[in-house]
Each structure stands twice: as C-alpha cells, then as structure tokens.
Batch of 2 targets.
Target 1
Amino acid sequence: MHNAAFELLKLNFVYLAFDVQPQDLKEALEGLVALGIAGVNVTIPHKEAVIPHLDGLSSEAHAIGAVNTIVNDGSRLSGHNTDVFGLVET
C-alpha cells in the first residue's frame, strides 16, 4: 500500500520492514540517522522502548507514552503517535 502510494505520487521512497531485536534498538536508531532514512514506523515491542533514544516527542506521543512513528530530521529523531488520530476519528 505504501509503496504503491509512493509510486503514484512519484516520490523517491520505499517502505521496508526491518526486524530489530530489543537489544539492538539503540544501534538501529543510530543506523537510521547514519543512512539518512527519512522515517520509520514502530511496533510492539518497541513503542515505549524507543522513547529514551529520541531527541523529542510530539505532544500526543508524550501524553500516550508510546511512539509509532519516528521522523529523522537531519540528525534529530522525533517520536510521534498517530494511533490517537485513528481512535479519535472512530
């Protein structure tokens, strides 16, 4: 779905899955910055564990205490939680 949308919009992005073990989380986030990856989605078991490794949180992620999206802005990683918007809309 994501890759089809990127192609349709002619964006130079690709959506890939990375299997990150909990003990490798910090290094995976460092790799995200080193590789210039624009952002990633986060799932269980990492939604709470990533928080100490991020440079900032959106107000939603801070209030919920969990992150499902990380944006890489240069070398600054910010955590967001878009789950709340889906819940509010239902």
Note: The CA atoms of residues 7 and 13 lie 8 Å apart.
Target 2
Amino acid sequence: YTRQDPGGGKGRLAYGDFLPLDRERAWDVIDRMRVIGERHRATVAQVALAWLLAKPFVSTILLGASKLAQLEDNLGAVEVELTPAEVAELDALTEPTPLYPNWFHTQTADQVSAQALGLAPPPEEKKPAAD
C-alpha cells in the first residue's frame, strides 16, 4: 500500500474503505519505514515485523502471508536489527492519541500524582551551583 496506490492493487483494501484510521499519519509511518528499510536493505514489511520483534514484551508474531513470496519476505525480518533510535522513532510516530478522559487527567493532575501514575517524567535532579 502506498500513497499512489492506496488499495494495494488487488489487495484487501482495494475493495472498500472500512478501516477507521488517519490515512495521512499511516502514510507518514510507511514512508518512514521505507527510509529505515533502505538503510537495512529491507522491505517495509520486514521493518514492521523487526520493530515488533524488538519489543521485549512480544513473544511471537503470527504471519498472515497468502503467497510464498510474502512468507519468504516476512521471514527475512529476523535478519533486520533496528537501532534503539529507529524503534523509538517508530514508537513516537504511532503513539495513540489519548482519548478523553485520559488527556484531561494528564493536564489537570498534580505532578506528584502524575509521576506516580507514570503520566509525567520524574523530576530532574537539581545540581549544586558551581563555585
């Protein structure tokens, strides 16, 4: 799927626009994965799967290939090792937009409570002034 061919030729998205998503944001993520893939000589699909594999909480990935070429491409993801900066960049690009009331709580919570709930960074340590 690309901006130029949003339906992916005869892919499943060619038959309807039923998924509620921010398409421009999705294209931005795909464009960034393409750039990252060029650095690693990998496809967008391999970068996406490598990104998931980089997560310590992901124990397995279920592949949905319908063609042998897709399966072979997907399996190539195990050879792609993303840098921590690339993983963080993709995480930031795909961070969900907070829904109400979550965004409200982050704006109105006192800092001590927000830090205890993991909604705000811990306070910075103050360094003594230099003499």
Note: The chain has a mean pLDDT of 83.
